[in-house]
Amino acid sequence: MGNLKYPYIPTHPGEVLKEEIEYRGLSQKELARQMGLSYTMLNEILNAKRPVTETIALCFEAALGIEAEMLVNMQSRYNMQLARQNSQLLARLQNIRKVAAVL
C-alpha cells in the first residue's frame, strides 16, 4: 500500500526507453551490441528489472540521443517512490520521527 502523500505508480526509465526503441524499430540485440551490453542486461533494463545507472544512461545518450541526466533523474524518482511505498521502511521512519520529536 502506498503512502498517501505519494500515491502515483512510478515509471522506470526502462519503460520509456523500451517504447522509444520500439517506436524507432530498433532491434534490442543490435542496440545491445552497439552499446557494448549483453542482450540480457539491456532487456532487463527495458523491462524494469535492472536500474539505469549513470554509465548506462550515458550509453543510451550516445546511442539514442536521449539525455543521460533525464534518465538518471527518472531512475532516482523511481527509486524514491519505491522506497516511500516500502511498509518496513515507513515503520522505521515513523519510529525515527518519534525519537527525534522527543529530542
Summarize this entry quickly:
The protein is mainly α and 103 residues long. The chain contains six helices and no strands. Helix content is 70%, strand content 0%.
Which helices and strands appear, and what pairs or packs with what?
Blueprint: H1 13-24, H2 28-35, H3 39-46, H4 54-64, H5 68-84, H6 87-102
Helix pairs in contact: 2-3, 4-5
Q: Cα distance, first to last residue?
A: 30 Å
Would you identify the CATH architecture? Orthogonal Bundle
**Element order: H for helix, E for strand:** HHHHHH
Q: What is the tally of helical segments? A: 6
Look up the CATH topology: 434 Repressor (Amino-terminal Domain)
Judging from the principal axes of the Cα atoms, what is the shape? elongated
Number of strands: 0
Please explain how this structure is put together:
With 103 residues, the chain is mainly alpha-helical. It has one domain (13-102): lambda repressor-like DNA-binding domains (434 Repressor (Amino-terminal Domain)). The chain has six helices and no strands. The protein has helices at residues 13-24, 28-35, 39-46, 54-64, 68-84, 87-102. Helix 2 crosses helix 3 and helix 4 packs across helix 5. The longest helix is centred in the last third of the chain and has 17 residues, at 68-84. The relative contact order is 0.16.
